[in-house]
Each structure stands twice: as structure tokens, then as C-alpha cells.
Amino acid sequence: DAGVIQSPRHEVTEMGQEVTLRCKPISGHNSLFWYRQTMMRGLELLIYFNNNVPIDDSGMPEDRFSAKMPNASFSTLKIQPSEPRDSAVYFCASSKGPSVLTDTQYFGPGTRLTVL
Amino acid sequence: LAKTTQPISMDSYEGQEVNITCSHNNIATNDYITWYQQFPSQGPRFIIQGYKTKVTNEVASLFIPADRKSSTLSLPRVSLSDTAVYYCLVTTVLDYGGATNKLIFGTGTLLAVQP
């Protein structure tokens, strides 16, 4: 089992540029989550999908952030335009069942984003 | 929504039992408590989950008192490889269909195990 795959692992960009983070969930998993982790704010849930449908995006910080899941095996998180305060580690996670409440989430290795 | 509070850090020695307590005073009836472990440069990894009383698996135990306002993760006989950040997670159901939930991670506890 390959686990959750994220790319790129590291991204350095300049303020104002568009950034796209990618995630491939574990095959057969129905829910996908995007998190952001910083020293100041800890681990925050940004958005999650169930069966490719966005269920809750209330954690998305602002309109510069958008996420899509065009199919069961791929999701993107886009930041446009990026700002230095977006610098963080972004994690993708997936879970097997529809219950966010009780289904174990499996996290990817994360993408470390640095916006200069 | 239930907010969690954990100690920022804890120290221990190899072979000792470690207990990490998480406070969640506003926990709701249908909330579950889940603990995750995170090593540097890796994503969090599930450890254990419970609703009430005691849950035990091959790596840890979770103790939840009757009022459920706190929970304690117990790691028996820790080793150096248990040095990590431990997160307490309260999952709040906003509708019973499970379609809308809020995931709230605690601040995390950095456990440092020394030889």
C-alpha cells in the first residue's frame, strides 16, 4: 500500500505566484482532508471531501485558497496569489469510511511551502 | 465546539509509563476522542480512539472519566522512538448523518524520552 502521496514535498515561491499542491489518497478511501500546520496555529483542518464532494470548507482561510477533487484518486489545493503568511506544511489525509467522526485518517508526508 | 488543552511538553525516561492528559470541558454527547502521534517531517499517525471508560490497543490505553471532560493517553514502557508530538482530537458531529463535522486538534504535547 503506497499510502497517501503528496507532491511536491517542498515548494518555494515568491509572493503573488500561484501555488498548486497535489494529493493522491489511498485507493478505496472515500474521504479526503487538507490540513495546514504552523508553529503559531498548530494543525488546522482546511477542507474535507466525501465521495469527491466538498463537505466543509469553513476552515479555508480566505478566497485565495481553493480545493478541488475531480475524481476519487486526485485532489488539489491551490493558493492564488500566495503570500508569505501562507508558509506552512500542508498535509493531505484520507479515510476509508464516510464518518469523519470515527474513521481513522491516514496522513501523507506533507508539502512544505515557503513563500518569499 | 469542544476545545482541547494539553501540556506543551513532557519528559520521560526509557521504560517508564507516560500519561498525557487532555482537557475538553465542552465535549458534547456524541463527540469522540482520538489521539494522534507525529514525528518530525511526517504527518500525524492514529494511535487510539474512544468514547468513554477505557480503550486499549497494542500500543496505548485511553482513559476517559465518566464526565468526559478530560482524557488520558497512557503509553506503557516508552522507548526513545516514542519521542514525538501527541495530539488530542475531539470530533464534533454537527449532524447525525455524519456529513458535517468539525475536527479540532489540540495544541499537541511534545514528549521527550531520554535514555
Describe this structure as you would to a colleague.
The complex is a heterodimer of chains A (116) and B (115). Chain A has 116 residues and is mainly β. Helix content of chain A is 0%, strand content 53%. In chain A, a hairpin with a 2-residue loop joins strand 5 (42-50) and strand 6. Chain A is globular, with a radius of gyration of 13 Å. In chain B, 0% of the residues lie in helices and 51% in strands. Chain B is built from no helices and ten strands. Chain B has strands spanning 9-13, 18-23, 32-38, 45-50, 53-56, 61-64, 70-75, 84-93, 101-105, 109-114. In chain B, the strands form two sheets. In chain B, strands 1, 3, 4, 8, 9 and 10 form a six-stranded mixed sheet that branches. In chain B, strand 6 (61-64) and strand 7 form a beta hairpin. Chain B starts with 8 loop residues before the first strand and ends with a strand. Classes of the chains: A mainly beta (116), B mainly beta (115). The A-B interface holds A 4, 33, 42-45, 48, 50, 55-56, 91, 93, 98-102, 104-110 and B 30, 32, 41-46, 49, 87, 91, 93, 98-103, 105-108.
Considering the chains and any ligands shown, give keywords for the structure.
heterodimer; A: mainly beta; seven-stranded mixed sheet; four-stranded antiparallel sheet; 0% helix; B: mainly beta; 51% strand; globular
Contiguous runs where pLDDT drops below 50 for at least 5 residues of chain B: none
User: Would you count the extended β strands of chain A for me?
Assistant: 11
Structural class of chain B: mainly beta
Q: Label the structural class of chain A.
A: mainly beta
User: Helix proportion of residues of chain B, in percent?
Assistant: under 10%
Distance between the amino and carboxyl termini of chain A: 36 Å
Q: What is the helix content of chain A?
A: under 10%
Task: Report the portion of residues of chain A in β strands.
Answer: over 45%
Largest sheet of chain B: 6 strands, mixed
Please name the two chains that share the biggest interface, counting residues whose Cβ lies under 8 Å from a Cβ on the partner chain. Answer: A-B, 24 and 22 residues
How would the global form of chain A be characterised? globular
Number of strands of chain B: 10
Rg of chain A (C-alpha, Å): 13 Å
Instruction: Spell the H/E element sequence of chain B.
Output: EEEEEEEEEE
Which ranges of chain A are low-confidence, i.e. pLDDT below 50, for 5 or more consecutive residues?
none
- Number of distinct helices of chain A: 0
CA gyration radius of chain B, whole angstroms: 14 Å
Query: Strand-residue fraction of chain B?
Result: over 45%
Distinct helical segment count of chain B: 0
